[in-house]
Amino acid sequence: MAGEKDKIMAKIDLDKVPEHIAIIMDGNGRWARKKGLPRIAGHRAGVESIREVIETSLELNIKVITLFAFSTENWKRPRKEVNFLMNLPLEYLNKELDNLKKQGVKINKIGCEEDIPEKTLNAVKKGIKETYNNNKLILNFALNYGGRAEIINAVKRIADKVENKELDSNNIDENIFNEYLYTKDLPDPSLIIRSSGEKRISNFLLWQMAYSELWFSPVYWPDFKGEHLLEAIYDYQNRDRRFGKVK
Ligand code: V0D
Fold first, then answer.
1. Containing structural domain, residue 43
2. Which of the listed residues 86, 88, 182 should we mutate to test ligand 1's pocket, taking the one with most ligand atoms within 8 A of CB?
3. Model confidence over 49-78: pLDDT tens digits?
4. At what angle do helices 79-103 and 39-60 cross, to 10 degrees?
């Protein structure tokens, strides 16, 4: 029997899939509240949605998925919640790493390493190392990431280079600037998705989103399934991307 996912899948043009999809995984806390559960139960349930997104991305031959897992602002949440979140990469990799390896998924991360507990960082680095040679799909986690912080960090390192006469400021262009971003080896996101109905970017990939298409799904992240990703991709494929030009 063809389910909702197969129905949308049949409409997708496999030659026009977005190369890089970035996702703001919002609505875990509200999902939990609606069910009378603690917020952390929502975060844990959100892991299942990551699995769905990976599976569907592999079916479509999508090259990069970036997941906004923890922002530079998330430190302001209650300490108990922050501690729980910082344990999730470890928990996730214990459970999923074998699968990811079999699926040919390459783990990557962007964001500021400072302030991330050593145990968390070591688990992530181990995941990156053990999947380094995979090439089906890059699963890029934004951890302690902020778009403005990323840009400031780039500007400071460029200023150092100019001061040391290793770079002529006249030569600074978009390509040079890109080399100083966490995402230097990744294509810009073609499509940015935010779940749970909020219509904001919240300091995510500010530089990289210059020409990204945006999709806001009303579905809370733990309820976000393969069919919801396909819905976003189907809409994306029916847009007219002009990059400022006329066709
Ligand atoms: C909570 C729902 C996987 C959204 C999914 C530290 C928010 C579950 C990771 C993860 C989080 C990160 C790096 C890595 C492997 C896995 C993760 C955080 C939150 C914040 F290398 N899920 N996940 N990290 N949530």
1. 18-145+188-237
2. 88
3. 999 999 999 999 999 999 999 999 999 999
4. 20
